[in-house]
Recover the amino acids of this structure.
DNA sequence: TTTGTAAACTGAACGTTGTTTATTGAACGC
DNA sequence: GCGTTCAATAAACAACGTTCAGTTTACAAA
């Protein structure tokens, strides 16, 4: 099946090229600059050709969201440098904020646009593909870390990992997204907000 | 000057009508349904007429943001039912979340779209008009409340009202906005998240 | 090598958008 | 009544996502 295979590869090659170009446009000029005609120009195809590989513009954007979320996952995993669970959570929080500030446009599209995009990132990529989306995997990392924290000290013995992970995440998201959409109104540096936020949370959930 | 006055009134009347209709459309069908032609249809004028009263669509949206922010201010002021500062902060937090869930589209456009919109809400309305925007007034309410809290108990004597208000606000925003854009992924009810969030913050900032 | 078919691809169009502008028409001061 | 001013319109422009009737290409079979 050499021929069908090559055709298939050509197809995924072009799909990847569309995604690569789209990502470049989004990162350099913002999501609104990502138009079908612009992408078509860049890959030197006609606008209609895009629709052979993507159902619509929305699907491209969703895919970019998934890709970006994989990067966030990598950022979070760098929390592994610390061994103490509490310290790890602190590092992860800072990395989360750093991701948001270094990949503003990506963060925007995943967490600050319509819920359809977020759903694509959290749910499974395909219908048949049953593995969790990168968003869910990221969240699971947090839950895992709080479970470890629970076991690390008697003070945290009664902590509900899922609930606390939700609050932890919501708090970080609040700081990160407020910095993005109301930057000039947040006087305190993000790092300070994040650090005190984590500190306060860990102190507050002690039983 | 009866004539000029009447003309002026006609002008502001029509401007208000545009805003009223625009708000109705946004609330009922979402921001994307708010098109110039749609508004023109509704007020029974031609599309071009809108531009006699607004520079562009953006200006209408910004005005809607300002109007929505006034409503948020009202929601927050209902925290006055309590006398204890800590309790007031709890009520205000719940009201904040309630505003976000009852005025999703407004919350979205103010806090989750481009920073230009947010800037319009926080800054002064006009260049010559020096009074603070509704957003700034809302934030000042929080700062005021934390200042009261500081005076209410020795535990809070060293608290920095502005910084803590920023964290408080960021945390609430995180919960509210995450519920809007990733609703199905936040298992815990928003009210619970908000209440524990405030509780944890107040516990954590004690010196 | 030629033919037939299936797929990739294009160019032009459709219906939207926001926005601009030449032109109209009515209301007003004189 | 006359001339001016200004609100309002109709029509257009450019750009958007998307569709589709065709054309071209690439390959299997003959």
């Amino acid at each position: 099946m050499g021929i069908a295979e090559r055709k298939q590869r050509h197809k995924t090659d072009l799909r990847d090229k569309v995604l690569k170009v789209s990502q470049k446009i989004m990162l350099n000029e913002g999501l609104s600059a990502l138009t079908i005609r612009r992408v078509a120009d860049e890959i030197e195809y006609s606008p209609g050709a895009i629709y052979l590989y993507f159902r619509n513009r929305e699907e491209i954007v969703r895919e970019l969201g998934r890709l970006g979320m994989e990067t966030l996952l990598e950022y979070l995993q760098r929390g592994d440098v610390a061994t103490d669970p509490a310290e790890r959570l602190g590092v992860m929080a800072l990395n989360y904020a750093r991701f948001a500030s270094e990949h503003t446009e990506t963060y925007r599209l995943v967490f600050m646009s319509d819920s359809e995009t977020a759903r694509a990132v959290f749910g499974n990529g395909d219908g048949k593909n049953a593995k969790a989306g990168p968003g869910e995997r990221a969240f699971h990392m947090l839950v895992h870390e709080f479970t470890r924290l629970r076991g690390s000290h008697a003070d945290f013995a009664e902590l509900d990992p899922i609930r606390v992970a939700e609050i932890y995440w919501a708090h970080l998201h609040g700081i990160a997204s407020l910095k993005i959409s109301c930057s000039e109104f947040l006087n305190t540096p993000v790092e300070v907000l994040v650090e005190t936020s984590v500190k306060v949370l860990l102190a507050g959930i002690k039983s």
